[in-house]
Amino acid sequence: MYLKRHKVRKGGKSYVYLRLVEAYRDEGGKVRHRQVATLGREDQLKASGQLEQLAASFARLDPPAAGTRRLVGPLLLVAHYLYRLGLVKLVDALVPVRGRALLTQGEVIAVLAASRLCSPSPLYDIAGWASSAAVGELLGVPAMLLNDDRLGRALEALAPVAEKVRGELMLAAIGGFPAVADASRLHLDLTAVRFAGAYEDSALVAKGWAADRSIGRQVKALQAATPAGVSVYFRPHKGSASELAAFTAAIETLAAALPPGLVIVADSGLGYAENLCAADAANVKFVAPLRADTGWAARFALDYVSYRERRLPPARRTTWKGLLHPFPVTSKDGTRHDLRAAYIWSSEEAATVAAARDRALATAEAALARVRNGLGGRHYKTRKQVDARVAQILTGQAAGLLAVRTGTRAGKPVITWARNQDAIAAASRLDGLYALATNLPDHGGQSPLTAAGVLKTYKDQWVVEQRHRDLKQTLKVRPIFLHNDDRIAALVAVIGIALLIFGLIEAELRAALGPGTPLPGILPEGRAAIPTARAALTAFDGLCATYTPHGGLILDRLTPAQRMILACLDIPLPWPEKPC
Q: Which of 29, 159, 285, 354 is in Cβ range 3.0-4.6 Å of 263 for a Cys bridge?
């Protein structure tokens, strides 16, 4: 069968109709043609998108010409994990398609997640990536159907069920992947995803503070990661939302979905008294830095060595001291919560804080010297002008540490200052000192909870912070421009799916190799290294498959590193390799 363009003139205008024609041989062996169906006017078919759908339906059945190459790359790994998670079936069960759609919602969402991991691209360029990659061969989705309108409609369909999808994928990861089977401890942290555009009426995008102390239009995203570095939960919040609302919502959701005994590790956003009381009342165990300063006194040496200092001689390592002490807290409703606080002192942190304070004092004194040199000039003609400038200088770490006096002499303003040694001494007593609040129980009489144990638990917080960096660097999630909140919420859900797969690849690869075992040749220059998901995905860059004259695909020869990664992750080859 083939398509035939048939021209028709009506009312002085020409129209082109597309007809489906079948070729056959009659009883005498002569080739004949007969019209099977008239598909419609060519211009109307193009405008409605039906022409692309027809072409895509044929593309599913008719393989490309021999010699056509498809970029496989890291999609070989990603497709395997999408299948193991059951993403397509999960989304299709929650959002079934209507009518005679050629693509399901689950297929589109799977392609979006794969694109984020393999070749981060804006929505309008997804089809361009898919046309050269083996998306049709590994995911069964024709590239020509992935126009930005279809992607947008899939995002809008996903938005109402995004939280359900998040929960189901979290349970699927915990139940189906041994590397993350232990989700009894989760590390929570907030990050900001910046957006481009005005978004004046958005309920998600809003101006807010980011970690770099800058203000911009953003959506805040809360992430929960296991100690192995697998992000099992990723949820959006309004860009101006407080940490309290984000942490409270996440703790409620996670506590309801996971077995009892969940331990939450978080930064100081959880460290307010009311937050700790709420978590304790919900029977959620936690470790979080306390926000309020209390009278910390006694200090005991801790046997703790950070990962980055493990190779240093003992004399050059950071010294840690601590004390675990009861810390009762009473909530607003009068309920008493018997928490404990681990008071921790770090020699490295103490040196850093002292150096920062010295720099702040030097900067403030230099600014005051400039004011003194300009007295009587056009900027500092009066004492009022001098006082206004001094108030601006004595902020931040220098506040309260300098005693400044201003006055007037012979009609001209004067200024003197000196360091407040008592205030500096009082501030230095807390250098390097902080408190970690917890309600963790003792582990029996033979292994009681200690300050060192609380510190070790909290120091694993770097895993979720590393995933934030992967989100913004490897997955290139920002900046983003979308039209409505449904698409924004759904895209954040897709990013969470990609981040989950990213963590699964890394955790399973490291588990298969063994703790601290490097993988030979995984880095671009051929060096061995403890594998990361970023390095594992990059190791497959440039891997292609070629169509043979018989319609099958043949894969390029694998490198030793690629072969070892596939073996560790138990991923079978979908096609044979090119012979040597």
A: 285
Nearest C-alpha neighbor of 317 from the set 345, 360, 348, 362: 348
- Per-residue confidence (pLDDT) for residue 320, from 0 to 100: 64
d(CA 218, CA 314): 44
- Whether 117 and 74 have beta carbons less than 8 Å apart is answered as yes
* Per-residue model confidence (pLDDT) at position 3: 67
| 172, containing H or E segment | helix 162-176
Per the listing, tokens 């009883």 go with 27
Sort strands 263-265 and 285-289 into parallel, antiparallel or unpaired. Answer: parallel
Smallest Cα–Cα separation from 537: which of 558, 522, 520? Answer: 522
**Residue 295, pLDDT score:** 35
pLDDT value at position 446? Answer: 59
Helix (H) or strand (E) holding 502: helix 485-513
Q: How far is C-alpha 297 from the chain's CA centre?
A: 39
Nearest CA to 368 out of 326, 418, 421 is that of: 418
Query: Which pLDDT value is given to residue 294?
Result: 34
How is 343-390 classified by DSSP, letter by letter?
A: EEEEHHHHHHHHHHHHHHHHHHHHHHHHHHHTBTSSSBSSHHHHHHHH
Q: What residue type is assigned to position 87 of the chain?
A: L
What CA–CA distance (Å, rounded) separates 119 from 380? 57
CB 284 within 8 A of CB 307: no
Residues whose CB falls within 8 Å of the CB of residue 363, separated by 6 or more in sequence, listed in order: 398
Please report the pLDDT score of residue 297 as a whole number. 35
Q: Are 468 and 478 in contact (CB under 8 A)?
A: no
CA dist 263 and 274 (Å) reads 18
Give one DSSP letter per residue of 278-314, joined into a string: HHHHTT-EEEEE-SS-------EE-----GGGTTS-G
Reported as half-sphere exposure (CB side, CA atoms, 13 A), residue 508 has a value of: 24
pLDDT below 70 — which residues of the chain? 1-3, 46-63, 99-101, 181, 212, 292-305, 307, 320, 443-446, 477-481, 551
Write the CB contacts of 169 (distance below 8 Å, at least 6 apart in sequence): 85, 87, 90, 232, 497, 500
| DSSP result, 83-120 | HHHTHHHHHHHHS---SS-SS-HHHHHHHHHHHHHHS-
Residue type, 560: P
The number of angstroms, rounded, from the C-alpha of 387 to the middle of its chain's C-alpha atoms is 46
Q: Cα(241)–Cα(221) distance, rounded to whole angstroms? A: 10
pTM greater than the 0.70 cutoff: yes
pLDDT in the model for residue 328:
87
Kindly compute the dihedral angle of the four CA atoms of residues 228, 229, 230, 235, in this order, to the nearest 10 degrees: 140
Round to whole Å and give the CA distance between 414 and 407: 5
- Residues 153/480, Cβ–Cβ less than 8 Å: no
| Distance (Å, whole) CA 572 – CA 15 | 51
The two structure tokens encoding residue 153: 């409609």
